[in-house]
Design brief:
Elements (H helix, E strand, L loop, with lengths): L1 H58 L9 E9 L4 E6 L4 E3 L3 E8 L3 E8 L7 E5 L4 E9 L6 E12 L5 E15 L2 E14 L6 E15 L3 E10 L8 E11 L2 E6 L4 E8 L1
Parallel strand pairs: 1-7
Antiparallel strand pairs: 1-3, 2-4, 4-6, 5-7, 8-9, 8-15, 9-10, 10-11, 11-12, 12-13, 13-14, 14-15
């Protein structure tokens, strides 16, 4: 029993060793196979990754490009008050935009000048936005509510000494100052009919320029325009228009005095 048992034990141990050796060979073969395929697998994965990046780049939206913009700063200066309007409105603009600024003084002020990006004395300036810019409008306090530039329209009917009837209408602008109750200044008008003195036939419609005189109170005006025609047919001929009216805020409403019949409305600019 002892001999048999010992032989069986030896046989079992040999079998276990054989099995273990086989397992080791199989494990070695498995890793050998894995290593033989691994480089190709890495290369295939790399190709797929590169292809995915190409697809993403092809279908992705283009990057957003921020347009260049600049700021316009508008300021007021002087002893008076007023406003400035911008067209188009800002204060931020795309590069190259042309901005028009227009001044508007209050009833007790007059516009003096522009300074900054553009220097000027007219009612409007234009600024091309090729960088950050600033512009200042200077308004000065009027010594009289009548001081300043007034623009508007008129219409009239008049009969001259030759019996010709004139029906004039157009624009009227005057710049006046009041020292006490006396006004002085200049004015320009257009829309005046020039007629043949013999036939009264209309030759053309002309403009005129001249001086202003007259007197004012706190709310009333009595003024006279003395000018000359500036056209071809009536060039150099004199023109006199007198009117009286009232001031309300920034508006003069007046009527022409005899022998001219008509109205005139002027607003302070």
């Amino acid at each position: 029993m002892i001999a048999v048992g010992g032989a069986l034990g030896q046989t079992t141990t040999a079998a276990q060793q054989l099995v273990q050796s086989g397992v080791q060979e199989i494990e070695g073969l498995k890793w050998s196979v894995a290593e033989s395929f691994l480089p190709d697998s890495v290369g295939a994965i790399a190709d797929i990754t590169e292809g995915m990046h190409s697809l993403i780049e092809a279908f992705a939206p283009p990057p957003t490009v921020n347009a260049t913009t600049y700021s316009l700063t508008i300021g007021n200066a002087g002893t008076g008050t007023g406003t400035v309007s911008a067209s188009p409105p800002g204060p931020t603009y795309a590069a190259g935009t042309v901005v028009t600024l227009t001044e508007s003084p209050s009833a007790t002020s007059t516009f003096a000048n522009w300074s900054g990006a553009v220097s000027a004395t007219g009612p409007s300036v234009q600024i091309t936005m090729n960088g950050n810019e600033s512009e200042t409008a200077t308004f000065n306090l009027s010594s009289s509510p009548w001081d300043g530039t007034w623009t508007g329209t008129y219409s009239l009917t008049a009969v001259n000494g030759d019996g010709c009837t004139f029906n004039d209408s157009g624009s009227f602008s005057m710049t006046i100052s009041a020292a006490g109750q006396t006004i002085s200044g200049s004015a320009n008008t257009d829309g005046h009919q020039c007629r043949d003195q013999n036939t009264c036939a209309l030759d053309d419609t002309e403009s005129s320029s001249g001086s202003m005189s007259g007197s004012v109170t706190t709310t009333t005006i009595n003024a006279e325009f003395d000018g000359t025609y500036g056209g071809s047919s009536c060039a150099g001929q004199s023109l006199t228009l007198s009117f009286s009216g009232t001031l309300s805020g920034n508006t003069i409403t007046a009527t022409f005095t005899s022998p001219v019949n008509g109205t005139i409305t002027l607003n302070k600019r």
